[in-house]
């Protein structure tokens, strides 16, 4: 018997057309798009299906858009009778995971992620912050580089990838030092703000106020959270960790390892693209990795788990 984990992507996985194939084939997909439009007060369905891409890249749009597309993928799996034993999500994907665990309602997720994106964008003036991926350098060495430059480790994604964040000049200096220290590559990311750094503190404060207005229930299955990489189920603890998540590094590599240690042998990436699938492969090449983003991948995943 396979032990399944559903994992949900974060920012950077968005693309024009996401969610569209499944929404055409499942009535609940069209219903979720309509519910998202109503909750937000604008046509996110049209943005997902038609773009333009530049609009879809705006953080306040990207976050609820990826969540909605991921929720449609999850509901398609649920209609086919597939349920996870545990869930996790990368950054905003943690909200998708919590929706899948029946901890947060669909409408609350859509609205809070729109606000979260807005707050994160407003936290620093455009162009003053930056993020970069450091490839092929040990985490300890990346942390040393960050201490010397003022940058911060933001996403510890896999043994070969750490994303750093901070003021633009600090990230630029850290990229240069990382290359000197032996990094195979450094890539500045096309993001609009320095996410998961202390510069996001204003966003964290505003988000805390909004999260305190919504109900977060105990999760129906363990949620391996970004802040600690450990499973959590209690609603109050989930809320506290979502607040801390804004300024804390995403411990993705440790989360995946902990799920594997807990018996997970099959990961299903639920949502657009296959970014997390690639990271999981770098963390442990022995586990089965599937994904669901359209009808073809849904059918392949159902076959892959013996449904």
CATH topology of the largest domain: Malonyl-Coenzyme A Acyl Carrier Protein, domain 2
Poorly predicted ranges: none
- Quaternary form: single chain
Just name the CATH architecture of the largest domain.
3-Layer(aba) Sandwich
Going by helix content, strand content and strand pairing, the class is alpha/beta
Shape: globular
Rg calculated over all Cα atoms: 18 Å
Strand order, biggest sheet?
8-7-2-1-9-10
Task: Give the number of domains.
Answer: 2
Which CATH class of the largest domain?
Alpha Beta
Query: Alpha-carbon distance between the termini?
Result: 12 Å
Count the E strands.
10
- How would you spell out the order of helices and strands? EHHHHHEHHEHEEHEHEEHHEHEH
Mean pLDDT: 97
Helix fraction bin: 40-55%
Helical stretch tally: 14
CATH superfamily of the largest domain: Malonyl-Coenzyme A Acyl Carrier Protein, domain 2
What percent of residues are in strands?
15-25%
Described by strand count, sense and barrel closure, the largest sheet is: 6 strands, mixed
């Amino acid at each position: 018997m396979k032990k399944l984990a559903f994992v949900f992507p974060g920012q950077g996985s968005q693309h024009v057309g996401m969610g569209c194939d499944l929404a055409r084939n499942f009535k609940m997909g069209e219903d979720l798009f309509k519910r998202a439009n109503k909750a937000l007060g604008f046509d996110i369905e049209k943005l997902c299906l038609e773009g333009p891409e530049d609009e879809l890249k705006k953080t306040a749009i990207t976050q609820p858009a990826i969540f909605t597309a991921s929720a449609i993928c999850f509901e398609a799996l649920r209609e086919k009778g597939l349920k996870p034993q545990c869930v996790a999500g990368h950054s905003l994907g943690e909200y998708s995971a919590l929706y899948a665990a029946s901890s947060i309602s669909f409408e609350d997720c859509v609205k809070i992620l729109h606000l979260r994106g807005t707050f994160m964008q407003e936290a620093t003036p455009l162009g003053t912050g930056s993020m970069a991926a450091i490839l092929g350098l040990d985490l300890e060495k990346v942390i040393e580089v960050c201490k010397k430059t003022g940058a911060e480790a933001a996403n510890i994604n896999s043994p070969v990838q750490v994303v750093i964040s901070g003021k633009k000049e600090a990230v630029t200096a850290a990229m240069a030092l990382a290359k000197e220290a032996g990094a195979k590559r450094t890539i500045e990311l096309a993001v609009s703000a320095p996410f998961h750094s202390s510069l996001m503190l204003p966003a964290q404060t505003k988000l805390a106020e909004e999260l305190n207005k919504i109900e977060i229930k105990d999760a129906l299955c363990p949620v391996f959270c970004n802040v600690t990489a450990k499973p959590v189920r209690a609603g109050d603890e989930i809320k506290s960790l979502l607040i801390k998540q804004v300024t804390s590094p995403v411990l993705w590599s440790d989360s995946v390892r902990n799920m594997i240690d807990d018996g997970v042998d099959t990961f299903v990436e639920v949502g657009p693209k296959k970014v997390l699938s690639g990271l999981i492969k770098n963390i442990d090449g022995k586990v089965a990795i599937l994904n669901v983003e359209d009808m073809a991948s849904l059918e392949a995943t159902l076959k892959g788990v013996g449904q």
